[in-house]
Amino acid sequence: MFKKGQGMSLNTIIVAIIVLVVLVVLILIFTGYFSPWSKNVGACSTQNGMCLDKGSSGLCTDIATETNDATPMSGRCYGADGKLDSAKICCPIGTKAKG
Known about the structure:
The protein is of the alpha+beta class and 99 residues long.
């Protein structure tokens, strides 16, 4: 009597949607869409540090003792233009850059 047409199964449609979502996410990653977010993850201020002008030694000095070298932090310092500033060093709060 009534002939049913050949249709796509629900599983095929769901798999196609998942593949499209993954493809869009990969395109966003490789085009740099997520770079503003990833920059803030490694920033000095998010690690409770402060960016100071790097002296010739590239070390941080404890302000209280003036002699003990504090280990520079791994945080990255960015300039006002949003680009990485290699002339600055990330020091723990309570220290200064050792010249």
